[in-house]
Amino acid sequence: MVKRLVVGRALRSQQLHETLLPKRLALPIFASDPLSSVAYATQEILLVLTLGGLAYLHLAPWVGAAVVLLMAVVVLSYRQVVYAYPSGGGSYEVASRNLGPGWGLVVASALLVDYVMTVAVSVAAGVDNIISAFPEWNPHRVAIALTFVALLAAMNLRGIRESGKVFAAPTYLFVAGIMVMIAVGFARMAFGDTPRAETAGYGVRPEHGYVGLSGLALAFLVLRAFSSGCTALTGVEAISNGVPAFRKPKSANAAKTMTAMGLIAVTMFSGITALALLTDVRITEHTCDLVGWQGDCRTDPQRTAIAQLAAAVFGGDNSPLFYYIQAATAAILILAANTAFNGFPMLGAILAQHCYLPRQLHTRGDRLAFSNGITLLAAIAGGLIWLFNASVTRLIQLYILGVFISFTLSQAGMVRHWRRRLLGEADPLKRRRVQLKRAINRFGAVLTGTVLVVVLATKFTHGAWLVCVAVPILWLTMRAVKRHYDRTAEALQVGRGEVAETMLPSRIHAIVLVSKIHKPTLLALAYARTARPHVLEAITVNVDENETRALQQEWDERGLPVPLKVIDSPYREITRPIIEYVRGIRRRSPRDVVTVYIPEYVVGRWWENLLHNQSALRLKSRLLFEPGVMVTNVPWRLAGAERYEHKTGKADHYAPGGIRRHQP
Q1: I want to staple 213 with a disulfide (CB 3.0 to 4.6 A). Which of 45, 218, 425, 608 is the partner?
Q2: CB 326 within 8 A of CB 307
Q3: Contact of 79 with 253, CB cutoff 8 Å
Q4: Would you place residue 646 in the very low, low, confident or very high pLDDT band (cuts 50, 70, 90)?
């Protein structure tokens, strides 16, 4: 009942085409992350530059321009990936096909880490903006963030199209609000009424060691600010991973959506950065470094850059438009995690299909979404939020390293892709087009590779080393999973000369487990007899002398046609004596197959399972690892189970495959 309320009714596999997305829904679903990143990318640039005080803020426009250039190159590059590899693998497929499976796994590992960080950072940043409007909620920061992660997971479990309808409105409201704020802010400046941020009159106390920087030290500060601003590029690759989710023509629609995303993101980022500098927004990593701060700098949170801009442009923090911007920003930042909730499960499904991750990740749930991947992502991201206290400043240091690994290797792979195309292309016009595309990807590979080095150098000691540990561990784990699946497939493969007769056992030795004489036991005995095994015996474990004697006496009185064998257990164990008895049969006759029949109860309510079948469950788990042993469960449905199903109506309302999926 609860599952149906949260997820909705199951969809048939044939309804998959109904979940494909038009461009208007694909944009908020796949581009909410890069669109929302502009809400904190400018702030991250200012946070780094103000480490040296106000003297270095004049460098912010140049840092912002470099971020815009990088964004344009990456968008152009990924437009080409969309057309060249429309199957949805994105950077992983490009690297795997052109650079080799090993490099493909590097990209996959980096992207999986980045998707997790996208959820953690986006939700934490959204909560920051909520707290900017309601500072008294600051003590409940972690609980609020975890609640939003759970809600996002629940919405995505309902299916990509249904979640897209919910997420579309906040995305478009955020874009509209930011565009209006930028337009109003510049209009006021044009008429001589330049808005002033609430922190415009504050000074900034430089951090120790950042005063009077020059030469390499200054260059390092600028590069660190640039690497923080590159958070505006997170999620750009999600559209290339999600091409199969678009309506036909898939590649063309995905490319148009990516272009629209790039134009909107560049416009908003440029406008916010310009307004923040013109209105003199002041924001520091530590509140106590703000000279002139009113209140307790140890506990009172700073307002975000977006919040300060909205208050300055719209006439204060009590105006309706201020609350509109805060609500829209918080909503889009939280919903930006939806990009990861679509990218992570889809990439996980592709990796599972290629046997690099557990195959359960390739299974679609009731609503045709990759529900196992969604649940796994929510659990890991929630753990990070709890571990880092939902702090954007701490979490963001682990961010974007993974995405630039995938950017660089993807562009390098595309260069090799175009090189192969040139070898087989004779038409001069087509060759020039391919050469242009190769040049774009080559420039993109050099640029993103440079940024990767910068990000690694500037963020390594601030937490990025954790990503450098996580990516190799994931890589090794996926290789190990692949080896396991390969070994399993090889072991199960039937040889050319192998025929069914050679696999026939010499005899079947059947054993029925008996604890007492009741209906489940009699059913198991009858079922075992219908199989006509060569040897059939019932066994019971002697853990209580009186009960065993009573069982033997009743067995003889009823004249049951199967001999009862008693196994002694001086230490009152059940599982080990049975295992040893079965092993003894196998040692005496290695070609015999032992079939163990286990009577079990079928109860109506989940909690009743805790009261029954525990010994059978332990025994089954041990017998499954014994060679030449087959385990057969013989279920006996209790009357309570049938009454409960008829009372709740479950007996008549199972969806196809519902029992297999443990449908409630």
Answers
A1: 218
A2: yes
A3: no
A4: low
Alpha carbon of residue 250 to chain centroid: 24
Cis status, amide bond into 249, omega within 30 of 0: yes
- Is 538 exposed, middle or buried, given 0-12, 13-18 or 19+ CB atoms closer than 10 A? buried
Contact by Cβ (8 Å): 149, 155: no
Q: How far apart are CA 476 and CA 484, in angstroms?
A: 12
Residue 528 and residue 510 in contact, taking contact as beta carbons nearer than 8 Å? yes
Q: How far apart are CA 123 and CA 60, in angstroms?
A: 26
Q: At what angle do helices 23-49 and 337-353 cross, to 10 degrees?
A: 110
Angle between helices 160-190 and 337-353 (to 10 degrees): 140
The 10s digit of each residue's pLDDT in 135-150 is 888 888 889 989 988 8
| Whole-prediction pTM | 0.69
Which SS3 state, helix, strand or coil, does residue 70 take? Answer: helix
At a CB cut-off of 8 Å and minimum separation 6, what does 377 contact? 115, 116, 119, 153, 340, 341, 344, 345
Q: What is the pLDDT of residues 197-249, one digit of tens each?
A: 888 888 888 877 677 777 788 888 888 888 888 878 877 777 877 787 788 88
* Nearest alpha carbon to residue 528 among 471, 602, 595, 573: 595
Q: What is the DSSP string of 385-443?
A: HHHTTT-HHHHGGGSSHHHHHHHHHHHHHHHHHHHHHHHT---HHHHHHHHHHHHHHHH
CA distance 410 to 449: 11
Q: For residue 599, give the nearest of 656, 654, 538 by alpha carbon.
A: 538
Q: Are 196 and 281 in contact (CB under 8 A)?
A: no
Model confidence at 421: pLDDT above 70: yes
CA 129 to chain centre: 24
